[in-house]
Amino acid sequence: MNRLKLLLVSSIVTILPGCALWNAYFMAGYDNQEYALVNTIRTNAELNVVMCNDFEASKRTFEYLYSKGLEVKNFTQYIPDNEDSHKLTSNIYELIKQGRDAYSGTAIVSSTFCKLKLQQIVRVTNTAQKVIGSKSR
Amino acid sequence: MNDLIKLEHTFNEINRAFENQEISKEEYKNLLAGLDVERIVTMNAEELQRKEELNKIINAAINVVSAIA
User: Fold this and answer.
1) Which residues of A make CB contacts under 8 Å with B?
2) Angstroms from A56 CA to nearest CA on chain B
3) CATH T-level fold of A28-133
């Protein structure tokens, strides 16, 4: 039985390339703060889709999401072995910034744009939550 | 595959909104740029989940070795 276990372990170690092993083993674990910040962005985006007919309210929503997006991007930046999460949160930030830029450049933004952009943010944060939430505790 | 279908669905939705003149040309470009971000996130997420699975395998292997020793 022990020989079988050793065979199993050695098989895993020899089959996988060194870098993949190294990267996977030294991954940052689950971080509740990281997860909570992404959840805040997703929930706010979901709640404010119905406000898209109101330009000022939508502009405030994108400003708020922008500050949260920047916060989570900065939060993940210098945590050791957390490059993957930082890449993910940088993408969330980029997506929110696109929406915020649309509101800062003009006084006219269509409600359809607002809805579609918020839905994009919801989908991306949903994906990010699945990944961050599945990290080992 | 499922994620690709979702992205395609989103692309069609954006196109339809533009064709129906519900969004401007600038908004259309902005949403397509967002779709590209979605594509990147989907790819990164898949990679990250594979790494996490690998992490679990390695830890399980370490536990097996510890139990043997």
Assistant:
1) 2, 5-6, 8-9, 12-13, 16, 20-21, 23-25, 27, 84-85, 87-88, 91-92, 94-95, 98-99, 101-102, 109-110, 112-113, 116-117, 119-120, 123-124, 127-128, 130-131, 134-136
2) 18
3) Four Helix Bundle (Hemerythrin (Met), subunit A) (1.20.120)
Domain ranges of chain A: 28-133
Count: domains in chain B: 1
Burial of A99 (0-12, 13-18, 19+ CB in 10 A): buried
The answer to whether the complex's ipTM is over 0.85 is no
Model-level pTM? 0.83
- Residue B57 belongs to what domain range? 2-68
A27 and B51: CB-CB below 8 Å?
yes
Report the alpha-carbon distance of residue A132 to residue A71 in Å, rounded. Answer: 16
Question: Contacts of residue B47 in chain A, CB cutoff 8 Å?
Answer: 84
What percent of chain A stands above pLDDT 90? 64
Task: Answer for the pair B67, A21: CB distance below 8 angstroms, yes or no.
Answer: no
